[in-house]
Design a protein that fits this description.
Elements: H1 2-39, E1 41-43, E2 50-52, H2 59-76, H3 85-98, H4 101-111, E3 126-130, E4 137-139, E5 144-148, H5 152-155, H6 158-173, H7 176-196, H8 201-237, H9 245-256, H10 271-292
Helix pairs in contact: 1-7, 3-6, 4-8, 6-8, 7-8, 8-10, 9-10
């Protein structure tokens, strides 16, 4: 009887020791996550918002990562001849937009009483056209860009194309890629803490789902909204008509057939939210065009693509 009693008495003590160690490990992860969050927070002068960017990630690191991704895409996709009409038109749009990055960045930073970081000053800007039905475009960290031919019939004209390309350039200028990388690292710390806490896999999935809807997806939508604003100002400053942004997104919505997921479950704002935001920015965009466009007032219909 005494032997059984002693056996029953030692097991709980062993479990308590294991549980105590687990608590300390969990606490260590929480403290590390908190330290990572606070030590890597900084203010983006262009948006005036506090952002999370790993301080160890330099401009050269971002350029290297962007170039690596670009080279992989080069191997996988079919590229349009650089001398083709559409390639020259897209390249001309990109050159006009990039030429206004510095002045727009400075103007937006000045609105928050700050100096711009000019982080993208050393980017090697380059744009190519990809043969694809996708109505899409991208700009990678470091300045490597591409436009898919499927976007041309949706954009229809250079002004609308400039709105899309300005949006993509804004992602690179605002270092949204670096912010997502830092966010992913913080998420990984949380996942490791959850696993070490003894949380059941199903519980971990529930927590991650809540994190996605409550933090990750809104975070992505915020990036899209920021890129919309900065991209619109870039297009306006580069002498494009920012008013083409609204019909562009109406055509984008028609092209999707209304099949987009609800906004709360998407990485992008709904078309209705996006258009409303762009319309609210239009007076500011037209003011930027008047300030920074050397060609004067808007005149005539937008230039249509020739191909």
């Amino acid at each position: 009887m005494r032997g059984r009693s002693e056996t029953r008495g030692t097991a709980p003590r062993s479990r308590r020791r294991g549980g105590g160690l687990r608590v300390w490990v969990l606490l260590a992860f929480i403290l590390y996550g908190a330290w990572y969050w606070y030590s890597n927070r900084t203010v983006d002068p262009v948006t005036g918002e506090k952002v999370l960017i790993d301080r160890s990630l330099s401009a050269e690191d971002e350029k290297a990562l962007g170039l690596q991704a670009y080279q992989q895409i080069l191997q996988q996709e079919r590229w349009v001849d650089p001398d083709a009409t559409i390639s020259r038109e897209v390249r001309n749009i990109a050159e006009r937009l990039v030429a206004k990055v510095e002045v727009v960045e400075a103007a937006l930073a000045a609105e928050h009483g700050m100096e711009p970081t000019r982080f993208s000053a050393g980017f090697d800007w380059e744009v190519n056209v990809i043969q694809s039905d996708q109505a899409n475009a991208f700009a990678l960290p470091g300045g490597k860009m591409a436009v898919y031919t499927g976007l041309v019939p949706v954009a229809r004209n250079e002004d609308a194309m400039a709105v899309v390309m300005g949006h993509e350039i804004a992602h690179a200028v605002l270092r949204h890629g670096a912010q997502r990388m830092s966010q992913q690292r913080l998420t990984q710390i949380g996942q490791a803490a959850g696993a070490l806490s003894g949380m059941e896999p199903q519980q971990q999935q529930m927590v991650m789902a809540a994190l996605g809807y409550g933090y990750l997806l809104p975070y992505a939508r915020k990036h899209e909204t920021e890129a919309d604003e900065v991209g619109l100002m870039l297009a306006a400053a580069a002498c494009f008509d920012p008013r083409e942004a609204v019909p562009l997104w109406e055509r984008m919505d028609q092209g999707s057939g209304g099949q987009a997921p609800p906004e709360y479950a998407s990485t992008h704002p709904s078309t209705q939210s996006r258009i409303a935001h762009l319309e609210s920015l239009m007076p500011k965009a037209l003011e930027y065009r008047e300030r920074f466009c050397e060609n004067g007032a808007l005149a005539g219909p937008p230039a249509q693509f020739r191909n």
